[in-house]
Amino acid sequence: MTTIDLGTTSKPTRIALYEAEFADDPHAAYTRMRREIGPLVPVDLAPGIPATLVLGYAQARRILNDPLHFPADPRVWQQNVPESCPVRPMMEYRPNALRSAGAEHTRYRQANTASLDAVDQHKLRELVETVASDAIGTFRGAGHADLLTQYSFLIAFRVLSSLLGCPDEIGARIAEGMAKIFEAVDAERGNQILGQAVSDLVALRRQRPGDDVTSRLVAHQARLTDEEMAHQLVTLYGAGIEPLTNLISNTILKILTDEDFSAGLHAAHSTVREALDTVLYTDPPLANFCISYPPYAIDVDGFLLPAHQPVVISMAAANNDPAVIGVPGAEQLIGNRAHLSWSIGPHTCPARSHAYLIAQTAIAYLLDALPEIDLAVPASDLRWRPGPFHRALESLPVRFPTAA
Asked: What's the pTM?
């Protein structure tokens, strides 16, 4: 079998994931890449920033379960990447569980898991319902709303800030910084805003501890430094604002545009949880991520991945790999939640149950409060934000009858 060197820049041609054309129809791009190149594809995450995008389900599982050959530590890679690079803040080394390996990763992971596991799920549900009620109260009488900014974002932002013991002023700066980083627009400035804000939160909770995730991290036996604390919070906010906002919005969109699913939901033949899993399987909000950096060139099924170059898992493409979908038993995959959207292996999302509960509660509350909600524009008029990592709407305008 001939090995294809994905480190070459001429053949095969690299696909730009940062352009609006890709954001408009990523699944068509994945299909074209798979047909013309295969399950591992040379891409550019930003101009001049090469990576390998993993489209194959089997190859993705192999890589995610092999931290020895595919560690998440980017320090060698970033030596030749300028700080002004728009995707660097999303990918650079941070002393946290997401960007480390080995004993370092274990230490950070244990601190995060212990702090998250102490969250009271019943109180979390009540918190989401309170935030949802307040949000709906601001637009119920108008008969229309942008659910992305007026509902989904507010849920993610306010619930996460409460869980982390973060005042609104600091939380607003964190959200601004994260948005710039995810969009890879003015990301360097976003990284600065984010860094200062999380440092302020750490200082606050060291001085005034409370019953929150940040205070539990401070008190954990791992004895995290201020710098380490700040970077744990970067990970928690990175996973908790943008992806959660988009999971809620994208699932609402699915319910509003899929008539069969909507009918089944109203007839109690399907559930909001099933809608969430359908979106996570078919069009996850964090579409391309779970980045690793092989320490030496490595062959994966006839594709030679360059040393110290990013390997990015396309959860959106791998979940829909024709090599898996269409084989006997594949119809059970969504039911047993075999999708990769929470990742697998040592970097599996530690807050999966929290995210499910928040999103499920928020969507169910909205549908109960506004049962006759509809899109305010044709679905084809909706626009998706460019960026190599996320699947994110620019807005989600809806209309609904006002109370008499």
From this structure: 0.91
